[in-house]
Amino acid sequence: MSDENRIRLIASQPIRGRILDRNGNVLADSRVKYSLITKPQSVSDINWEKHKLSISDLLNVDSNLIEKKYFAGLKNKQLSVTILDDLDEDQIIKFKENEDNLSSFEIATKLIRNYPYKSLAAHVIGYTQPITDPEFKFLSKKGYKLNDLIGRTGIEYVYEDFIRGEWGGEMVEVNSLGNFQKSLGIKPSIKGNDIELTIDINLQLVAEEVLKDKKAGAIIVMDPRDGAIRAMASKPTFDLNFFSKDFKPEKEYNNIFNSSEKPLFNRALNAYDPGSVWKIVTALAGLESGKFPKDTLLDTKPCIIYGSQCFREHNDLGFGKIGYEDALRVSSNTFFYQVGYGVGVDKIYEVSRKLGFNSLSGIEISEQENIGLVASSEWAREGRGWGQPGRTPWVPEDIASMSIGQFVVQVTPIQIARAYSAIANGGYLVTPHLAKKGGKYPLDKKRIKIDIDQNNIQLIKRGLRKVVESGTGASINYGVSNLPPVSGKTGTAEDGEGGLDHAWFVCFTPSEKSELLVVAFAQNTPGGGSVHALPMAREILKVWNEKK
Fold first, then answer.
1. Strand 447-449 vs strand 128-130: parallel, antiparallel, or unpaired?
2. Using CA atoms, how far apart are residues 63 and 80, in angstroms rounded to an integer?
3. Which residue ranges of the chain lie beneath pLDDT 70?
4. Which of these three, 197, 229, 247, is where a domain ends?
5. Which of the four, 86, 141, 278, 392, has the lowest number of CB atoms within 10 Å?
6. Residue 12 has what pLDDT?
7. Distance separating alpha carbons of residues 459 and 343, to the nearest angstrom
8. Count of domains forming the chain
9. Residue 244 domain flag
10. How far is CA 226 from CA 420, 451, 458, in A?
11. How far apart are CA 214 and CA 5, in angstroms?
């Protein structure tokens, strides 16, 4: 108790580790903020008046304000008082030039988080904020100080312990009245670890750029071999540096927290109706069930009646008798209605689970992630999430909608990326991840062999190649030279919440031994996946091919 009464610690903030892209480009670091301080208990009364007036003239500060802060510090027995916060370069130079005649004052430094690219990959990187009083009660045991920064979202949150560093400080001796006596020594703070991400800044920049003219949407660029995320963008976005400001203007605050556009919402990890990009799931369910083997030919029609509703072909004509590959190439609705209705809801659900749907993807920033919804007969029996058990049965209209990824199916872009990666890599479910160094995922846990016949996967793969060669995705090659063969799928989805249609496009390249997969999603952007989503993916493939 005696020691506690006579020893005080003037804490020294640690430098938080940097967040880097895969090539060492800095995505987040720390900036020094300079403040003018005085230590009221160690200031000489003889010098105070003279120094106070000098600093007032030099830095154009009201001397009465300086006096007020100084005496408040004395009264409260504070060891350090801030006179001016966040000095600009000119103020620092002026002080340094006259420092010898201003011994009552000194410049203290404080580290604040800095994001050089502002809104780039904002949902991935995340932000920090000061800890709250209730948090301090238990975080103090882990070495946190009051008003210390802590990661709130994204990488800043997930890898908090890895990148935060350790506080140091100066120990000073005070007497029984709390007055300064002498310095007992300094313990340097320990810098946090840098974390290197799988993100490639070249691909991230183009992903953000192609979303600029969209109302909302998301881009995911991933290595289908191991799940390494090369880019993840969500629109609308926000400037991460907002959270480093001591004073946050009300307008900026409202634009982030109270906007109907929800800029903090990571659309890459949120669930939407997938539309035709879901058709690979229905196709695999047909093949795996044995009811619709690989040589199946079905007569496509202008529309097919299920329950009381006519479910139409998107061209209102049909495509004649076709098999799986051509059904994918032209994105026939009536082909997949027949397959889905024939195998039933639970077979589609079973195959979807094998492809990673209706579950979290495993990506580190799972606090932002939605598991989505894939309907099953049990889900319907239990009330569909809103009704009473036994009162909301499965109906014929449900299976038709489900077969083409509508209404009773809600999936996230990251889940689509996993499922298509399993096609691209020959049958392995990968774990999407963002950390290259300091990560949580050992390599052996990133790939899981899925229980689906390899021949069926190859058939789907051939169909996706045809989509780009001569089907709905053929325009991916327009204006691009020397691009390796691409496979992919377009999608146009009605918004189950009543908004305008969504546009999707998924592709991977090279078609064999694929190295890159792109999911492009434009929310509530009617006109079709080939019109709005495909061109976004094309720009990313262009940059990837040039930089390769």
1. unpaired
2. 18
3. 1-5, 177-178, 247, 437-446
4. 197
5. 141
6. 76
7. 18
8. 2
9. no
10. 13, 18, 19
11. 61
